[in-house]
Specification:
- This protein is of the alpha+beta class.
- The longest helix is centred in the last third of the chain and has 51 residues.
- It has five helices and five strands, in the order αββαααβββα.
- The radius of gyration is 36 Å and the shape is rod-shaped.
- It has a five-stranded antiparallel sheet with strand order 2-1-5-4-3.
Length: 203
Amino acid sequence: LNTELHELNVELDEKVERRTAVLAERELQLRSSETRWRTMAEIAPDAVIVIDETNTVRFVNTAMMQLTGYAADELVGGPLDAIVPERLRRGHAHGLRRYLDSRVPRLNWRSTEAVVRSKDGRETPVEIAFGEYTLEGAHFFAGYLRDITERKRNEAAVIQARDLAEAASRSKDTFLATMSHEIRTPLHGLIGTLDLMARDPLH
């Protein structure tokens, strides 16, 4: 009996050791993968932010800190609301809950325009691409943000130039119509006089 118990204990110890080794290897792979991802995120030119399903910030890169004016420890562990304008917070929270319930995206995750609020209250238009992943049973969302202030400024300039051109065209049409009327009016009288003179010469 003692021999059997000993063999069972040895077998159990071996299983525990194998299981521990597998878990250790998996954890090492996860840490290695996370390290590579963080390194890539840090050198990325775009701002990167990761939140979990409770809307809590879990990671920001240097570009995100530069975009918002916040230090990493001011954002990580806190709600995403810190960088969301107050007027948009309820809609964002509702959209996140709706997606978690339905798993059906309502936005274009490849390119969506939004506004980011900086620490000083300044709002910056951004283009966001989303991604999601699950790690050890937890759900995360990664956002890649690009400042599109210059693009918006150029778009506004194009719209303004178009509006000015259309206004100038309307003014020109109005001017030509007015001048045409002003010219035709005396010409009608002159033509009538000439016609009368032709039909009833003075000599």
